Amino acid sequence: MAPPSCETATVRVLCPKLLLSSGNQPGALQWLIGSPFFPPFTVVSTFRCIHQSPDLDQESDDLRKLLPKGFEVIGGLIVGDSDAEKSALEAVRAARRLRKSISEGGELDDEKIVGASVDAGTGAIHFFISKTEKLAKLEPVASIVYEEDKSGKYLWENGCLLHCELPIKLPFYFPASSPSESKKMFSEAVDAVITQFKEPNVVYIAETLKKASGDVPKPVVLRGKDFGFGADASNINRLPAAEDQVSDIISCSHLCLNSKPAALVNSAENADKIQISLMLNRSEKSPTSGAPVAEYFPAMEEARVIVVDLNLDVLTYAPKELPLMHAVSNLVIPALVDQLYSLKKIILPHLLMEHPQLRIYHFNPPGVLHPITTVYELNYGETEMKQVDVRKSLHMRLGLPLDRPLLRTANALDLSVNDDSRSNTKKRGSIQLKDVHIGIPSSGVSEGVASVIQGSYEYYHYLQDSFDDSGWGCAYRSLQTIISWFRLQHYTSISVPSHREIQQTLVEIGDKDPSFVGSREWIGAIELSFVLDKLLGVSCKIMNFRSGSELPEKCRELALHFETQGTPIMIGGGVLAYTLLGVDYDEGSGDCAFLILDPHYTGGEDHKKIVNGGWCGWKKAIDSKGKSFFLHNKFYNLLLPQRPNMV
């Protein structure tokens, strides 16, 4: 099918619109990311240009490492002035230069690409199409469709991930008298490995990464002699699912799950994954027989040998209907080549010294629809400034907040698990339900704007772990829920403390006498703040109210907390405590509701029972009968934990 003309072209934006318009500094440049497998002019994500001028060599090196094969730069967006086309043309020219640098080619770029300009004053975004590098004039785009709500489903219903790990111990030799020759010999050894990727006797084995309870497709064996290297994977005919069953050509869908719950198709973490393993077949049958031959190549002078560890780990994206052979030859193998060259570039300056310990990680941070790949040096701990600076740079490029540990190794995608029945709850060894507020009925605030907790938590309540704390342990349970939030967002690795451990902490800091340990005394906001500071280093803000009727007056402030901090809040009133997960506030009428998680529940871990019983749900400040959930106590205090400022 021919690409649409610019007059009828539609730019589809799958990433949040906020990412496009963020960073309103004049001249700020972003790269628009799409895929050759999507309709033309479909923007999947944006990467900020973080090098000045821009330094396209450094930019192309970074994007070659970060961006999985199956995605590519399709244009540029710049913050400009009132002359939108002039600004967009500047973005287009930068994007074309970057595309050439990434592909390491100098030919003309005849692909149609997108140029966009953000008005620094109004934030309005104007899109244009550049037909070819030869033409300086851009064509305006009239139709722009934002489809953020469908984005995850669009990517992962139709596509899958191919994952390949390849540990290499690479020896190379160089004259002991000429250390300067080492870099040349190492480069030649790397090139020899790359040649092996495409040898006729190389074998690639593809198998499904997720072992579902039903039938698992048999692994597929692909041989190098059958590959068609260099083809444009985006133009290869795709196979309808039905044809895959009767054709000798096997598509990626053959190794994908036929069905899965709708909730599990909207993220890279739950996408279909295919594992690719590489082997060299040195034992093919020969028509003639012969004895093994050993060849001896004597060194002409004293030589030195160095062994370099290169642990390749690539992730690529492919449509499910793409023939598996082409997915491997045109996506996986080029990804291995690019990553090998990237690691070589990092190691070369240290070749004759201690080599950096390089490790590949894949992440799928919020707001970025596709995975990204990073190379971390494990010589440095995660809190060492050099590693912190690396993560800060990545956060800036991806438009991520600088106070959240989204790219720490604990948040990396887990691609090694082979059991679909796993769950995060089971993996952490706990029995608590997670995120019980998801799917509950609406608040009833007709024109309200809901601001809720960001991230996951576990629901702690009375009588869990066969421990009877009914009547006195609600604040302890609220604190456990709050600490579980910090655990699940990877701000801490400590276990959620028991009631006794919470009491011991308060004794250790001198707030309570030793007799407090093992007692049934309740605690409040002050004690919770002491424990969070001691165990997690988390500071808290405390708000005091003379009566529950004052709470609605603070709805705007509470909404701001959930939008900026996103942490659960403990509400204390008299001897009662609750966990606040969000507010729904109508600024015009003042009507509001509070999303309450009630730790006084004493039943089992039954989500339906919890929601239907009102143990997790919206509570109106004033209901239809004029009653308020908060008026049964004269005094309230709120504990608002603050996110640590860390990446």
Descriptive overview:
Helices cover 25% and strands 23% of the residues. The chain has 14 helices and 23 strands. The strands form five sheets. Strands 17, 18, 19, 20, 21, 22 and 23 form a seven-stranded antiparallel β-sheet that branches. The protein has a six-stranded mixed β-sheet with strand order 4-2-5-6-7-8. Strand 7 (125-130) and strand 8 form a beta hairpin. Helix 2 (56-66) packs across helix 3, helix 5 (182-197) packs antiparallel against helix 7 and helix 10 (474-488) packs parallel to helix 12. The radius of gyration is 29 Å and the shape is globular. The two termini are 45 Å apart. Residues 1-5, 241-247 and 418-430 have low confidence and may be disordered.
Quick structural gist:
It contains 14 helices and 23 strands. The protein has helices spanning 17-21, 56-66, 84-103, 151-158, 182-197, 241-246, 324-347, 385-398, 424-427, 474-488, 499-508, 525-536, 555-564, 607-612; strands at residues 10-13, 29-34, 42-43, 45-48, 72-80, 113-119, 125-130, 139-140, 143-146, 159-175, 202-208, 220-223, 273-280, 303-319, 358-363, 372-377, 449-452, 540-545, 569-573, 576-585, 592-597, 616-620, 636-641.
